[in-house]
Amino acid sequence: VGHCHGDAVRLSKAEVCFRWAFCLVVLEKICGTRVLRERLEGSQRFSSHFSGLGGAEVAVNFIQSAVLHLLWLRLSWTQEHACDKGRSQQRVLKARLQKLGCCIFADIFDRVPDLRHFAVGHESDAVFADMKATALAAQVSQSGKCVTHGGPCKAVHTDIDMSGSPCQSWTGIGKLLRHNSPQVAVTLAWCAWLRAALVKLAIHENVLGFDVEILKELLGDLYDIFSSDRCQVFDVKHSLLDEGSQGLDSHPPLF
To answer: N or C: which end of the chain has fewer CB within 10 A?
Structure first.
């Protein structure tokens, strides 16, 4: 059982392993079954970027299973598109998503071409201030090369996006180049796309040490950003479930 201390919830090791189910249990106790079901009902379209071996897709399966067994509600979530440049990752995504026939885009720079030259340049060329300025002014296309259908496809608007940008630049593998790594251009391209997409809910995953200020600088004017090391179940409740939380003065949440 989780222990509540004010607005914080301390998780046991078992609860960490089954976090989605635990969060649903807590939200049900806070909001009530009827309110939680009402918020989760209805069709939602989602997308993913850089999910590697389909981590985002697996997470959705966990959520759907937890909701079904706890609330007896079958979520109507449909994946519209994914994006990953690696050939092996594309093969895994194809296998996971073949029944859906959804688009798998090969390169996010097809949709945000203004940032491509930063990603293929040398380390000395990747100046974060220049990348940031370019991302904020970038022209975002709705189309890109799709490996599912073998040609250009349109990235259909989605309600939810779950993405995990490249982490190497924040680790020893990427020489700890951090902001000035060419790979950061991929993260900024996703931010530029997210500015144009304006999804209802965005989730970004990266390693410990990733600079969350990047998201705040690029997206803070359009999204309410919650860092996972401080994000609590109560933040989820306020952002997604409270009456009026999606009013004129609020922004979509990014976790």
So the answer is: N
